[in-house]
Design goal:
The chain has 93 residues and is of the alpha+beta class. The chain has a domain of 28 residues. Strands 1-4 form a two-stranded antiparallel ribbon. It has a two-stranded antiparallel ribbon with strand order 2-3. The chain is rod-shaped, with a radius of gyration of 35 Å. The chain starts with a helix and ends in a 34-residue tail after the last strand.
Length: 93
């Protein structure tokens, strides 16, 4: 009987530790939404590695069509007023 009591006490301690697990609080995750840019973005003038100067310009987001480019017919560049000269349906555009 003397050996059973310490064994039962040890078993009781081990099972009680597992019966009441510790819960850890973690703060909710925050998600940062970055809205897509709408419209053309402005690029300042810069010098390339080869030493060529590129003038400041506006650039639209790339897409899979060439119909909406300012250099395509019949579009007109709103910043320079120049009409488009390239045919958007030719393969070499």
């Amino acid at each position: 009987m003397r050996t059973i009591i310490p064994a039962l006490a040890a078993l009781l301690i081990i099972t009680s530790a597992h019966a009441f697990p510790r819960y850890h609080y973690s703060a909710p995750k925050t998600y940062h939404y970055k809205a897509p840019k709408i419209g053309p973005s402005y690029h300042s003038g810069y010098v390339t590695k080869r030493g060529t100067y590129v003038q400041p310009h506006y650039q639209t987001a790339p897409n899979q069509t060439k119909v909406d480019n300012w250099s395509s017919k019949p579009n007109v560049n709103p910043f320079t007023g120049k009409p488009g000269t390239k045919d958007p349906y030719l393969a070499g555009h």
